[in-house]
Amino acid sequence: MKNNNDNNIDFATVLGCAVHDMKNSLCLLLQSIENLTQSISTENQLTKDHLASAHYEASRLNTGLVQLLSLYRAGLNSLPLNIDQHYIEDVIDELLATNESYLQHKNMILKVEQSEELAWYLDLDLICILLNDMLINAMRYSNKNILLRIYAEDGYLVVKLEDDGPGYPDNMLKAVDINMQNYDIGHGRTGLGLFFARLIAEAHTNGEKQGSIQLQNGGTLGGSVFTLKLP
Questions:
Q1: What is the pTM of this model?
Q2: CATH (one of 3.30.565.10, 3.20.20.10, 3.40.50.300, 3.30.70.920) for 11-230
């Protein structure tokens, strides 16, 4: 008699393959959008704006796919890390290059303040995903100005992202410690990205120290303030 288990579908494998294929397609789409943007004349600002918005949404979708796959593989409990030493300036340069097109076409001003020659042990892929998601949100809700500050303090790497938008809604400020089981998709901006950011931060440990995220309103620009701390 045939074992029914032979017919079971390994959804983790199926999901991984599907996300991999979709990510490849999205990368090609993003490259095509960038090429189109460069080929369009400077006078055609309306088309450039539409392409910038398309690039932004494709980037958000790409981040969401990576988050979904990572959370599924982690079983919503832990996250496997690939820790190595990286120069933070290189991490930030990659972040800025990824979002340069959208910043330019939306006439946003992103000011970066970072300590020179700062290196830290972290999971590069996961931290890049986290920072990109937070910057995308800042660009979406800010009016014009964004401030990114990176420095070391009390044995932690501190990454602080501020904007001049309306600030985080009350339900998002209260949802920093939300469990996935209690996640409410209707909350919109309090969504999966926030849970994923906390999961990544807390997976980074050094002795008794653990990474964390913090949400506030106010700061230098009067809007949202997102803070990441890594030991």
A1: 0.72
A2: 3.30.565.10
